[in-house]
Design a protein that fits this description.
The complex is a heterodimer of chains A (231) and B (415). With 231 residues, chain A is α/β, with parallel strands linked by helices. Chain A has 10 helices and 6 strands. Chain A has a 6-stranded parallel beta sheet, sandwiched between helices. The chains are: A alpha/beta (231), B alpha/beta (415).
Chain lengths: 231, 415
C-alpha cells in the first residue's frame, strides 16, 4: 500500500528521558535505510503533562504540522493519558485524523477504559523500540485494527495478515484480541452492542472452522493474537 | 499323527528379541519326548513335537505355506525308523528355506564316526542320552543365541543395502541436477571477471547468479527432505502417525489459518504474474493434529505449484472444506492441467511431467512426491482431479481432532 503521508508524532510523557529516548529512536529509524522506512516518522511536538498536551495539540491543529499520531503515557501528573484522548476525541479530533496509542508502565493495563476513551490500543513501555515502531506503523496504516500489546509484535503482524487472507474483518479481529474479557466487557471496550460482539464471534467461528470460545482462545493464543499472560 | 504344540505360558510376541524361542523336538519314543519336554519347558521355550522325520518335514513345510514362524532350533533324534536323523538333517540343509535352523542331534552312541557323520550332515552340536539337563539346556541356549545373532545381522545388512541404494540414487540425482546451475554460475562469474560485460549488464548478471544459487538451495533442500523421509520410512517401517516419521512433534493446528498463512506469503509472487488468489472455508471443524513445519511444507508445495503452472491473469482458488471427520484443503489452478497418461506418475519421485512452469521457474520433480509422503505420514491423503474447464485441483485431507462434548457447549455470555 502506497502512502506518502508521514507520521507526525506528538509524544507525551512526564519523564524527559523517555521523551528523549523516543525522539532518538525515530531519528535512528529514519536513518536506518535508504530509502527510509515508510511511513516516515517525524516528531512534531512533546509535552510532559496532560494539560500541556491538550494545549500543544490544539495549537498545532490547522497547521502543516498538525499531529496525526499521539503516543501518550497512561500515568501523567495531572490526569490519565486516556482522559487526554477522550477530551480530544470529544473535541472532534477523531481516529481518522489522529491515531493514539497509550504507553503503560504497569503490568495490568486497564484495557477497557483505555479503549473506550478512543485510543487505538496500548503498548507496554518495556517493549523494544522495534515494537514501538511496528505498532505505530500498523496502527497508522490500519486504524481499525487495535494494537493490544501482543506477546510478539512480528508474529502478530503475520497473524494479522493471514487472518485477512482468511477473510476475517478488522472488527472481528478486534473482538478476537479481547477474548480474555467477557462479551459484555468487549462490547464496552469497543463501544458496540453485545449482540454485535456475538455476531462477530459467530461469523469468525464459521470462517475459521471452530465452534467454541475455548477453541477460539486457544487459536488466538497460538497465532500470537492474545498475549500469553493477561490482566 | 499330527504335531502337537505344547506352548508355554509366555505368549509369543512379534518382535524378534521378545518372543519365546521355538524349538522342534523330533523323536519316535514318547518317553524321550516327555523327558525333553519336561526339561525345556523350565526355560519357557515354545515347543513343537514330531515323532518321525517325515512328520517333522511336513510340519516345517506347513509353517512356510501358512506363513507361520519356523522353529529357531531343532532337536533331532538319530535312531528313528523309516528315516534316520542324518537323512532328515541332510534334507533340511538342502532346502534353502529351512537350512538356517540349527540342528542338534540326540544320540545314544558316542562313537566318533557317528558324531562326525552328524556334523557332516549339517548338525551344529550333539547331546548324548541319557542327557544331563544342564548340559542340554546350555547347548540349546548357546545355539539359540547364535541363531538370533545371525538373524539380526542378516536383517541389518538388508536394511543397510537398501539405505545404500537410496543414497546412491540420491547422489546421482543431486550431482546431475546441480551441474546445470553450477555451470551457469561459473559461466556468469567468468563473464564478470573477464571485464567483457558492459557495466549495465553486471547487475543483471549478479541477479542471475543469485537466482541460480537459490535454485541450488531449493534443490538441495528438496533432496535432503526426500532423503530424510525415505530413511525414516526404511528405518521405522511402521505406521505410527502419532509423530511424523521425522520425529517432529505434532500439535493441534487450525487448517484454515495455516492455509491462509501460506497463501498470504505468496501474495507478492501472485501479483507479479497478475494471478488472482481466492480463499474460502466452510469446514465445520478445521482443527487437525500435525507438525506445524510439515503442514507448512505441504501447503507451500501445493500453492507454489499452482502459481508456478498458472498462466498470467488467471485465478488460483484455495478452499478449505470438510465434515465431522475430515478437513481438507483444495488448491485449484487454471493451467494446462495434467495429461491423463501422466496422472499415474504424478506423485512419484522425479516424475516431471510435460507441463512447464509458466514463469520460467524451475521444477525439480520432487514437490508432489514430498507432499504425498508428508501427508500420508501425518495420517492424511492427497488427491488429484482435473478441474472442470481447465486446470488442476489438488486436495490434501486430514482427520480432524474430534471435539469433546464439553467443548461444544457455547456458554451464553460470560466466560
Amino acid at each position: 500500500m502506497q502512502t506518502t503521508e508521514p507520521i507526525r508524532l506528538f509524544i507525551v510523557d512526564d519523564h524527559e528521558l523517555i521523551r528523549y529516548a523516543m525522539e532518538s529512536w525515530m531519528a535512528q529509524d529514519a536513518a536506518s535505510s535508504t530509502p527510509p522506512p515508510e511511513p516516515a516518522i517525524t516528531v512534531v511536538g512533546t509535552a510532559s503533562s496532560g494539560q500541556d498536551a491538550l494545549t500543544g495539540i490544539r495549537s498545532l491543529q490547522k497547521t502543516y504540522t498538525a499531529p496525526n499520531f499521539l503516543l501518550i503515557d497512561f500515568q501523567l501528573p495531572d490526569m490519565l493519558g486516556s482522559d487526554v484522548i477522550q477530551t480530544l476525541r470529544a473535541e472532534g479530533i477523531a481516529s481518522e485524523q489522529m491515531r493514539a496509542l497509550v504507553m503503560t508502565g504497569m503490568e495490568n493495563a486497564p484495557i477497557k477504559s483505555i479503549l473506550s476513551s478512543g485510543a487505538n490500543g496500548y503498548l507496554s513501555k518495556k517493549e523494544p523500540s522495534t515494537t514501538f515502531l511496528a505498532a505505530m506503523r500498523q496502527v497508522f496504516l490500519k486504524p481499525d485494527d487495535l494494537w493490544l500489546n501482543p506477546t510478539e509484535a512480528k508474529r502478530m503482524l503475520n497473524a494479522e495478515r493471514s487472518l485477512t487472507t482468511a477473510g476475517i474483518t478488522s472488527a472481528e479481529k478486534n473482538v478476537l484480541r479481547l477474548l480474555y474479557l467477557t462479551n459484555e466487557e468487549i462490547a464496552e471496550a469497543l463501544n458496540i452492542s453485545r449482540g454485535t460482539v456475538k455476531n462477530h464471534l459467530n461469523n469468525m467461528y464459521s470462517k475459521l472452522g471452530i465452534n467454541s470460545r475455548p477453541e477460539a482462545v486457544q487459536f488466538a493464543l497460538k497465532v500470537g493474537l492474545l498475549p500469553k499472560h493477561h490482566s | 499323527m499330527s504335531v502337537s504344540n505344547t506352548d508355554s505360558s509366555r505368549a509369543a510376541s512379534s518382535a524378534l528379541s521378545e518372543r519365546s524361542p521355538r524349538i522342534l523336538i523330533v523323536d519316535d519314543m514318547m518317553e524321550n519326548l516327555q523327558a525333553l519336554r519336561g526339561r525345556l519347558r523350565l526355560k519357557h521355550y515354545s515347543l513343537n513335537e514330531a515323532t518321525s522325520g517325515s512328520e517333522a518335514l511336513d510340519y516345517l513345510r506347513k509353517c512356510i505355506s501358512d506363513n507361520e514362524h519356523l522353529p529357531d532350533l531343532i532337536l533331532l533324534d538319530v535312531q528313528m525308523p523309516e528315516m534316520d536323523g542324518f537323512e532328515v538333517c541332510r534334507i533340511l540343509k538342502a532346502d534353502e528355506s529351512l537350512r538356517e535352523i540349527p540342528v542338534i542331534f540326540i544320540t545314544a552312541r558316542s562313537e566318533m564316526d557317528f558324531i562326525v557323520e552328524g556334523f557332516n550332515a549339517g548338525a551344529v552340536d550333539y547331546v548324548i542320552k541319557p542327557f544331563h539337563a544342564t548340559e542340554l539346556l546350555t547347548r540349546v541356549k548357546t545355539h539359540l543365541d547364535l541363531k538370533f545373532s545371525r538373524d539380526a545381522l542378516r536383517k541389518n545388512n538388508a536394511l543397510l543395502e537398501k539405505l545404500n541404494r537410496e543414497k546412491s540414487e540420491f547422489m546421482g540425482i543431486a550431482a546431475h541436477d546441480l551441474k546445470n546451475p553450477l555451470a551457469t554460475v561459473r559461466w556468469l562469474t567468468d563473464s564478470l571477471k573477464s571485464g567483457a560485460l558492459p557495466p549495465e549488464k553486471s547487475a543483471e548478471t549478479l541477479e542471475n547468479i543469485t537466482l541460480a544459487v537459490e535454485r541450488m538451495f531449493r534443490l538441495v533442500k528438496n533432496l535432503l527432505d526426500v532423503n530424510a523421509i525415505e530413511e525414516a520410512a526404511v528405518l521405522s517401517g511402521s505406521d505410527n502417525h502419532d509423530d511424523s516419521p521425522l520425529h517432529l512433534p505434532s500439535e493441534n493446528i487450525n487448517l484454515v489459518f495455516a492455509a491462509a498463512d501460506v497463501l498470504a506469503n505468496y501474495e507478492a509472487q501472485a501479483a507479479q504474474k497478475s494471478i488472482t488468489t481466492t480463499f474460502a472455508n466452510n469446514a465445520p471443524n478445521a482443527t487437525i493434529r500435525i507438525n506445524a513445519e510439515i503442514l507448512s511444507q505441504i501447503l507451500d508445495n501445493l500453492i507454489s505449484n499452482a502459481l508456478k503452472y498458472s498462466p498470467r491473469d488467471t485465478t488460483v482458488a484455495v478452499k478449505v472444506s470438510g465434515n465431522a471427520d475430515f478437513a481438507q484443503v483444495s488448491v485449484q489452478d487454471e493451467g494446462v492441467g495434467i495429461a491423463s497418461e501422466e496422472i499415474s506418475r504424478l506423485f512419484t519421485k522425479f516424475g516431471t511431467l510435460s507441463a512447464k512452469p509458466t514463469g520460467g521457474e524451475d521444477s525439480t520433480g520432487l514437490g508432489l512426491f514430498i507432499v504425498k509422503k508428508l501427508t500420508e505420514a501425518a495420517g492424511g491423503s492427497v488427491h488429484f482431479a482435473p478441474a472442470d474447464k481447465r486446470g488442476s485441483i489438488f486436495r490434501v485431507q486430514f482427520p480432524v481432532v474430534k471435539r469433546t462434548r464439553s467443548s461444544e457447549d457455547e456458554s451464553e455470555d460470560d466466560e
